[in-house]
Amino acid sequence: MSDNENNRDEAAEKELEGVPEEFLSDDDDGEDEGEGGDFEAELAQLREDLEAAKQETLYAKAEAQNQRRRLEKEVQDARAYAATGFARDILSVADNLARAIDAIPEDLREDSKFKGLVAGIQATQRELDKVFTQHGITRIAAMGLPLDPNQHQAMMEMPTDDAEPGTIVQEMQAGYMIKDRLLRASMVGVAKKPD
Predict the structure, then answer these.
(1) Which CATH architecture has domain 84-192?
(2) Do 92 and 183 contact (CB within 8 A), yes or no?
């Protein structure tokens, strides 16, 4: 062997330092006859692992997207229905205001001493209704409609020939919706056939 060949062997050995023995081969072609099947099996296993990793990545992306959508919906709902508790509480004020207006006798409404007071109470009620509308709070229609258990709460049955059974003939307390959700059901009296 010449010095040149020795230097090449030493350089090659130095380069291969630290490489595990299983990766080093004495053959010039780099594989034994029996190792061809092992290589194909390992390649097939790596391909399966790659497909599994791709599937897991797709599932993780889909789950992250679903979570983001859920959070966006929760934020939208929180914005849209944030005033629900306050709105429920203020409905009793609206009820009392309506009762006050209804309790004023007709002769006092025309009396010059009370005309300003009545006009002020009615203006307050109109302003309250306007604020309700601005915040998506609407009154539920009831009178003359069939009972809808999703919006009306039947408090009593009233025997009558004037309306079909199951029709609302009296509204004891107005019901309200906030956007597309029930805020408070209407308390109603429902017609039934007389005995």
Answers:
(1) Roll (2.30)
(2) no
